[in-house]
Amino acid sequence: MKLLAIESSCDETAVAILDDATSPPAILASEISSQIELHRHYGGVVPEVASRNHTLNIRPIIDLALTNAQLSIREIDVFAATSGPGLSSSLLIGNTAAKALALAARKPFLGINHMEGHLLSPFIDCPAGVVPHLGLIVSGGHTMLVKVNTVADYEILGKTRDDAAGEAFDKVGKMLGLPYPGGPEIEKIAKTGDSKKYNFPKALLHEHHFDFSFSGLKTSVLYTLQKLAETNEVASELPDIAASFQKAVVDSLVIKTIRAAKETGLKTVAVSGGVICNQALRDALQAACDKRNLELKLCQPSFSTDNAVMIGFTALQRFRLGYSSALDEAVNPNLSLADTKP
Length: 342
Ligand code: KG4
Ligand code: ZN
Description:
Structural class: alpha/beta
Bound molecules: 5'-O-[(R)-(carboxyoxy)(hydroxy)phosphoryl]adenosine, zinc ion
Helix content: 40-55%
Oligomer: single chain
Number of helices: 11
């Protein structure tokens, strides 16, 4: 069975084609048109600019994916697209395109939760498929710990009460005068910094729940910068501030994740979302899991930031279980993983 999936929840227009004849499924095409350069100019994603560009990109990207997969549209058996959460004007472009193709071809359509796509993405290349695990999602819009019993059966253990981890990287990046998105830029300058120089707060660490909070950390960086500005020391301190901020985020994520694994008894930890591109986080999670004999599955960097392979992979899992979506099912910018019922 060949499945074509579209992702357009934010500022990437992405199309993937997967074939489930093998396990893991073969990725016949994976195309992404990124708008990062366009939005960098504004210091963040502008919804109107994003949806206009999705409209321009969607047809050529679908054509490119079919060409690279050496398939015609008639050879696609199932269509899927992200249906939320995200920017509604962006979601609508990819979602409507996939529904239109499904309608014209009289083939099934699946609307997929973007967060479920991230959650399952560490298993895209696993021959054994998705196993019960503790999922940590660290993306630009979300930070959450999820108990995954099986595909489509999830329990949210905790999430951020304010900023997502990626959002904190992006906002602190902006404060430091770095280009958007701040995550990779902070990682770059943190390499030459001293992570112990500033003792930034790690909120909620000692409370008995699995929620996160990064807004106090962000404010603490702001106050530190204001103080340094009085003596003209900001530029020379940037690497140390970046390294100390990064360490505070990494420590918060690692400590809560390990505690959740211990409490749930789950032996596999799987981590996804754009922030897992961060090598300091990858290394810290690996060391912590090795110490406790936990198996760690880190999503490949190419499937960590927004992409259509994760949407297609999730759609394949769900289609096998008998799921499909109605063509009149609306996109939902606030779709929650809790809505993804078994
Ligand atoms: O998963 P994603 O594409 O976004 C959402 O779906 O929300 O991830 C984008 C986020 C951005 O906030 C970006 O700054 C962050 O991932 N990110 C990083 C790194 N690479 C991307 N954060 C820290 N270090 C990185 N190397
Ligand atoms: Zn995402």
